[in-house]
Design brief:
heterotrimer, A alpha/beta (253), B alpha/beta (367), C alpha/beta (307), A: 253 residues, Rossmann fold, six-stranded mixed β-sheet, four-stranded antiparallel β-sheet, 26% strand, B: abc type-2 transporter like fold, 2 domains, five-stranded mixed β-sheet, 14 helices, 5 strands, elongated
Chain lengths: 253, 367, 307
């Protein structure tokens, strides 16, 4: 397979693309995120798990600069969360299964729209769109309405669109929940390739079948992040034979 | 029956939990009436007018004196011909001109019939209609005192020909219009939004799958909005009677019956619209564009129907607002009874029945 | 006689052929699972079986009644939990339940027995608006509303989508208690791992059932020998596997690689390991395992594609 995106290697001191220290968010008396700390290496596929209401969404909204933390600090793609939110926005991509592309626009129009939002020059954008379509073997579909594209392809297109501005970190929100097992593997191949290019993949999901594909996973519970490690480590630590059982054991405890 | 009542109850819960909408629905009608009422009914004093007195007899002089004495008008010019009146409108900026026919006194005593011609400047419709009403009142007063002084009991029919504004539009005429619009907003718009919301969120499927009659679901959802708009209508009527001294010449019972029938018609429009669309947004757009705006423009609320191009006059017949406004004016101002307005009631009721049947059929279909 | 009986069911929307000839039976007292990815036709099938949608062709009977003619009769005895949250978010938990009970000419008291285990968890929140419940609680409330009229047959359209693993586990435990009250259940899910919790399943792919049986029978009928191995660099291993000289089918499975061999393992496994070692692959825990439903799904669909 061809490599999807060429990334210029930026020399930076830190081996981490996400560094979170004591990050906290309070809503009135309620502490949604309670002093969480973790690091994610460049090119790592990091799974971010948690029960409904564990504080997962709040944490991600902070990392994506949509929400100001109450206290604590974080560096995202080398930029300070509190001061350089504009630069962070430019260096992160986002894709969700719930909303990814506009159904009533064509493939090209969708990609053009998101590319333009990120300020990619017109000619450059066209080249990037066609090279990523070619890689997905969809170049003859660029005039097709997204509505009529099968779900599996839509996911891959949405991912390619989120990568158009060549972000250093891409946030994936339940990217393959509910898709065909074979399409899921094709999608994860794409993710592996992208990660191999040094792009950090941050996956949030509460489906263990998605989580198992991540290099390292963390499980949030009641606003705290206490469990973090590779799937194998977590299984050994919790004495369980699947991540699902790890999760249930940990959250119920 | 228990299911039916439960649906009504549930709909009321929706309405009362949504405080903002409830407030708007009850406050906006009051605001609208006060706004219309106060901005339009501001008294006008010393409006400049011209009088072309072709009679120059004692009665015409008396009439002119009466007009001047009222304080509402200032006769600034006595033109000699009709062409001079035009000049006055252009150069002296008069608001109104009165032409008193020759042999005014003679006609008054012998023929018991006088034709006065009044020419309005209708560039400001509201001012013109207010002045017309003043003139009408003055003329009414004039004939009364004429009868008294001459110890005559001649029924004098004073017909006024207004050149630019044949339909005597006055402040009172806005009240039926406002009632119409409010009822369309509450009954048609809110009911159609509420119905299509259930389709959008999928709760309608839960109801369709339950062994409950579709008529109960739909009518049960619509009734609370009818009640709400009925309350709103009563508030408007009370304000217009108490604050603006609107005449109430007909029976209150008939007025309320008319309102109930129109509410049913408005609700049936709402039901039909929601049966045709799938989303709240579509329901809102279609109700606004397809019912609210045409009603505002074609019902005679903002513009007199008789002045419209023929094709629009024909179109006006489709919208229930026209029939309702005519009937409402007849009852409140003319004091018409059920014998006079039954045909309007029948039209409104007929529209409602046809649309209710259509929408229920459409809602009940399976694809 | 079967509680649901479907023969050669077809349904199209315009040019989209959503269901392409489906036949199956659900027996009384079963939990029957329709397992398939999003867009496979699960919701269309459910809409037809719950009498909301008319099929283009095919024989469909639910509770021994024809869905075209006797749909009003069917509706009295079925419960339905749609895929999307379909309760009134501004009504409280209790108000929702009372409302749906009344719609079925029933009352909470009358059928408290059925919903009691679920209601016990919900009752602390009974005055809270349904829209403000957590995902798991919403689902439990929806289930209560679907059960409040004591249906004979319960349709659950993707009940666990958007629900965390703990709540999912609880939900399936509840389903088992429902089954014990002689209520048959037809449930759909996109998650292969939930398939084993059903008595029988049908694997749905692109509007067709590719396999129907009990989960165990499907696993037993797996063609080939499944081997798993663990590696820290799955990406590299996948690239290498493209040059694998043996007749096999491979795919990542979480952090493991699954390989299906179609020959006897005693001869092929040593030479496979040699192939990996020759290419400097670091791996561990290589062993033969029993397939999961997901393995079966992959095996069946790739087999179909190769034909």
């Amino acid at each position: 397979m061809r490599l999807p995106f060429q990334h210029t290697n930026i020399v930076e001191d830190s081996p981490y693309s996400i560094e979170v220290k004591e990050l906290t968010k309070q809503f009135g008396d309620f502490t949604a995120v309670d002093h969480i700390s973790f690091n994610v290496k460049k090119g790592e596929i990091f799974g971010f798990l948690g029960a409904n209401g564990a504080g997962k969404t709040t944490a991600i909204r902070m990392l994506c600069t949509l929400l100001m933390p109450t206290s604590g600090s974080a560096r995202i793609a080398g930029y300070d969360l509190a001061k350089e939110s504009k630069m962070i926005k430019r260096n992160i991509g986002y894709m969700s299964q719930k909303f990814s592309l506009y159904d009533d626009l064509t493939v090209y129009e969708n990609m053009q729209l998101f590319g333009t939002i990120y300020g990619i020059p017109k000619k450059e954008l066209k080249d990037r769109i066609f090279s990523s379509l070619k890689m997905l073997e969809l170049e003859n579909k660029y005039k097709t309405l997204v509505y009529s594209i099968p779900l599996g392809w839509k996911q891959k297109l949405a991912f390619a669109t989120a990568m158009l501005h060549r972000p250093k970190i891409v946030f994936l929100d339940e990217p393959t929940s509910g898709v065909d097992p074979i399409v899921r593997r094709e999608f994860w191949n794409l993710i592996y390739e992208t990660a191999a290019q040094g792009v950090t993949i941050f996956v949030t999901t509460h489906y263990m079948d998605e989580a198992e594909y991540c290099g390292r996973i963390s499980i949030m519970s009641h606003g705290q992040l206490k469990l973090i490690g590779t799937p194998t480590e977590l299984k050994e630590q919790m004495e369980a034979d699947s991540i699902e059982k790890v999760f249930v054991k940990f959250v119920v405890r | 029956m228990k299911e039916f009542l439960q649906i009504i109850k549930k709909e009321f819960i929706h309405i009362f939990r949504d405080r903002l909408t409830l407030f708007l629905v009850l406050a906006i009608p009051i605001l609208l009436v006060l706004l219309f009422g106060f901005t339009i009914s501001t008294d006008i004093h010393h409006a400049d007018i011209s009088v072309l007195d072709l009679a120059e007899d004692s009665q015409s002089k008396a009439l002119i004196d009466k007009i001047t004495a009222s304080g509402y008008f200032e006769v600034i010019s006595y033109p000699m011909s009709e062409s001079e009146i035009d000049e006055d409108f252009k150069n002296k900026n008069i608001k109104l001109a009165i032409i008193i026919p020759s042999h005014f006194e003679e006609q008054l005593t012998n023929e018991k019939f006088v034709t006065l011609q009044i020419i309005n400047d209708v560039s400001d419709l509201n001012v013109a209609s207010i002045l017309n009403n003043y003139i009408k009142a003055i003329l009414h007063d004039f004939t009364l005192s004429y009868n008294k002084i001459n110890e005559a009991d001649v029924p004098i029919d004073l017909s006024i020909h207004m050149m630019y504004n044949p339909e005597a539009n006055c402040v009172y005429m806005f009240v039926p219009g406002i009632i119409t619009m409010i009822m369309i907003i509450i009954t048609a718009l809110m009911a159609s939004i509420s119905l299509s919301r259930e389709m959008e969120t999928g709760t309608m499927r839960m109801l369709l799958i339950a062994p409950v009659k579709k008529v109960h679901v739909v009518i049960g959802k619509v009734i609370p909005y009818m009640i709400l708009s009925f309350i709103s209508t009563i508030i408007i009527i009370i304000i217009s009677l108490v604050v603006f001294h609107m005449p109430m010449n007909g029976s209150i019972g008939l007025l309320l019956l008319l309102c109930v029938v129109f509410m049913l018609t408005a609700a049936s429009f709402g039901m039909t619209i929601s049966a045709l669309v799938n989303t709240q947004l579509d329901a809102m757009m279609i109700t606004m564009m397809g019912l609210f705006l045409p009603t505002a423009f074609l019902s005679g609320f903002l513009f007199p129907i008789d002045n419209m191009p023929y094709i629009f006059q024909l179109m006006a017949n489709i919208f229930p607002g026209k029939w309702f406004i005519i009937a409402l004016k007849d009852v409140m101002i003319k004091g018409s009874g059920i014998g006079d307005i039954w045909s309007y009631l029948l039209i409104l009721f007929g529209m409602a029945m046809v649309l209710i049947v259509v929408s229920l059929r459409r809602l009940d279909r399976r694809r | 006689m079967s509680i649901i009986s479907v023969t050669d069911l077809h349904k199209s929307y315009g040019s989209v052929h959503a269901l392409k000839g489906i036949s199956f039976n659900v027996e009384e007292g079963e939990i029957y699972g329709v397992v398939g990815p999003d867009g496979a036709g699960k919701s269309t099938l459910f809409n037809i079986l719950t009498t909301l949608l008319l099929p283009d062709s095919g024989e469909v009977s639910v509770l021994h009644k024809d869905i075209r003619k006797d749909f009003l009769e069917i509706r009295k005895y079925i419960g339905y939990l749609p895929g999307t949250f379909s309760l009134y978010p501004d009504l409280s938990v209790e108000e929702n339940l009372i409302f749906f009970a009344t719609m079925y000419q029933s009352s909470i008291k009358e059928n408290m027995g059925i919903i009691k285990p679920i209601w016990q968890q919900l009752s602390p929140f009974k005055n809270r608006p349904a829209g403000k419940l957590s995902g798991g609680m919403k689902q439990k409330l929806a289930l209560c509303c679907a059960l409040i009229h004591k249906p004979i047959l319960l349709f659950l359209d993707e009940p666990t989508t958007g629900v965390d693993p703990v709540s999912r586990k609880e939900f399936w435990e509840i389903l088992k208690t429902i089954q014990q009250q002689n209520i048959s259940v037809l449930v759909s899910t996109p998650y292969m791992d939930e398939a084993t919790l059903c008595d029988r399943i049908a694997l749905l792919q692109e509007g067709q059932f590719i396999k129907m049986d009990s989960p165990q029978a499907i696993i037993d009928s797996f063609q080939g020998n499944l081997v798993t191995l663990h590696t820290h660099d799955i990406f590299n291993l996948l690239h290498l596997m493209e040059q694998c000289p043996f007749h096999c089918n491979f795919y990542p499975y979480g952090e493991h690689l699954h390989v299906i061999f179609y020959e006897d393992l005693t001869t092929i496994l040593p030479s496979f390991e040699k192939f990996l070692q020759d290419n400097n692959q670091i791996y561990n825990n290589i062993q033969q395992i029993k397939p999961t439903i997901e393995d079966c799904f992959i095996e069946i669909t790739t087999e179909k594609k190769n034909l």
